[in-house]
Amino acid sequence: MRYIQALKIAIRSILSNKLRSFLTMLGIIIGVTAVIALVSIGQGSTRSVTSQIQSMGSNLIMVTIMGRGAESSLSYEKAMDLKDPNYIAAVSPVISTTVTAKYGNNSVNSTTVNGVNGDYQSIRDIQVATGRFILPMDDEGRNQIAVLGHNVAMELFGFTDPLGKTIKLNGQNFTVVGVLASKGSSISGSDDDSIFIPLKTMFYFAKNRDIRQIYIEATSPDTVELAKNVINSKLLKIFKGDTNAFRIMDQSQILSTVNSVTATLSLLLGGIAGISLLVGGIGIMNIMLVSVTERTREIGIRKALGAKKKDILLQFIIESLTLSGLGGILGIIIGYVLSMVLGTAMNIDAHPTLSTVLLSFSFSVIVGLFFGVYPANKAANLNPIEALRYE
Amino acid sequence: MSNILIKIRNLTKIYKMGENEVRALDGINLDIQEGEFVSIVGQSGSGKTTLMNIIGCLDVKTFGEYFLNGIDTSKLSDNQLADLRCREIGFVFQNFNLLQKMTALENVELPMIYKGVPTKERRERAELLLEMVGLKDRMNHRPNELSGGQQQRVAIARALANNPHIILADEPTGNLDSKSGSEIMKIIKELNEKGNTVVLITHDPNIAAQTKRIVRIKDGRILENEVVTP
Ligand SMILES: Nc1ncnc2c1ncn2[C@@H]1O[C@H](COP(=O)(O)OP(=O)(O)OP(=O)(O)O)[C@@H](O)[C@H]1O
Ligand SMILES: [Mg+2]
């Protein structure tokens, strides 16, 4: 009953000075909006990156060769030698180069061409829209065939059917045997903008046999660690114990790297947003102090009529809590809308989670409480006679 | 013999202003019994308001003793003093001291809120009191929509809200023209006739003459304690 009364007084005082109350709340509104929007977008992009990484397949192992001294790469034979009957299902070295692709008058500049073997499709779980992917026999026969990413196909052929047509890659003729399904962009670059040709064809096409990138598929998610050990010991032997000559990554490692980066980022964003909330709190304190001064006489009258210290204290604390709580609620609404709009624009699911909403709301209330206590205490401790005499 | 409501012994109030001391009250002895109608008169600066603030438990003495209804006020905490103000004392100020943002009705309800009177009872009593001071049709007006005399009547209704033992009025007619002043005096006299103890501060001899006892103070001392013979 005492609290209801204090709440009524607080609401009346907030309403009697609408513009000022709104400006005071604005700090909290902006703070809560920022917290919700930034955290939600952070979480949303983390989720989308995570799911992209997971879609790479949990069996995937990526080996990058940095080399050691004169030995800056692996030979094809040594790369294929990483295969292990117990733990490794497939190995595909990759050699990439950049070309200009032409079909008739259409051309695409600086397109990535990847030389891969027949196992690459299953290792990377590649979906073909029309035609087929590279087969082992293409590789063995060094066939001049190409599989096009979705975007490359669109740019070269438009709505013409590319299958069986001949394109020129840096002037050499390749027959198109397949087009990949569109995947959208991903963190490991998009296959949509790439062209695939057989690896052994690539040796001659690029005049390069140096393997620096190898995709390996473990037999199952459980054998990934064992497979990595096998690969590691083989590579250590090749590079004479130099652990810096190569890097072996699997999905869980990439995930944890990405997660630690996004966690730091989220903390940073949340921290910045939190600071704005704190600034909002200082705004509340400022206005509450002004309000206490302005209402000195009112406080004196209330005390003369029998208000106890705690009545006055309650009145002002509830007033600042109402300001910050109301600001918090408005901030939640605006933050929610903003997250959804930005999420749609960035093509991620930036739906604010319940815990984000609750956390930012309680933070705003705590800010209101913290910054309301000092002015309220000041009001409660006013001497009634001096307060009554205040003009 | 009726009950002694206010018992003041050797009461002194000293204000320290840096090096200087101001003895606003200097050894006051005063008894006021239940049902009395006392006026305190004296020149400006003689200590009337200071005395009233101490009687009303708004201020505390420097030396001496003050018993309110048998309670030694020097032994009370801030909270207990607030409680005493709430239940035992009704203030009427020269400048009304109404809360501007509230209606007359809400102003009268205020002391009952602090006493914890339930909403419905509070409303009913406030309406009754406003009716009694002749403001039945002004209950939902705010102070700035009322004349000075009407505002002072709201303040009197408010002073009566918790049915206190004592009404303390500091120059209640000081800001009013003579017509509204005499209306207010009429209400106050009626209150006393109904049994309320009233202590009234004034420097107007005509008003003092309407009370039943006049206490004259000068420089913080009681000069004279005279019973008015009607
Ligand atoms: N807070 C204070 N600090 C210092 N001196 C004070 C204070 N309050 C009152 N005084 C002094 O105490 C003396 C008595 O003041 P008080 O207000 O009681 O006079 P009063 O009789 O009510 O006068 P008035 O008729 O003008 O209202 C005055 O000399 C005044 O200057
Ligand atoms: Mg005075």
Write structural notes for this entry.
- Chain A has two domains: 2-52 and 256-389, no CATH class; 72-238, no CATH class.
- Helix content of chain A is 57%, strand content 18%.
- Chain A contains 13 helices and ten strands.
- Chain A has a six-stranded mixed β-barrel with strand order 2-3-8-5-7-6.
- In chain A, helix 9 runs antiparallel to helix 11 (309-346) and helix 11 (309-346) packs antiparallel against helix 12.
- Chain A is elongated and about 105 Å long.
- With 230 residues, chain B is α/β, with parallel strands linked by helices.
- Chain B has seven helices and ten strands.
- A six-stranded mixed sheet of chain B has the order 6-7-8-3-9-10, with helices on both faces. A four-stranded antiparallel sheet of chain B has the order 2-1-4-5, with helices on one face.
- Chain B is globular, with a radius of gyration of 17 Å.
- Chain B starts with a strand and ends with a strand.
- The model of chain B has no long low-confidence stretch (mean pLDDT 92).
- Chains A and B meet through helix 1, helix 10, helix 11 and helix 13 of A and helix 2 and helix 3 of B.
- Residues 15, 17, 22, 24, 42, 44-50, 203 of chain B line the site of adenosine-5'-triphosphate (ATP).
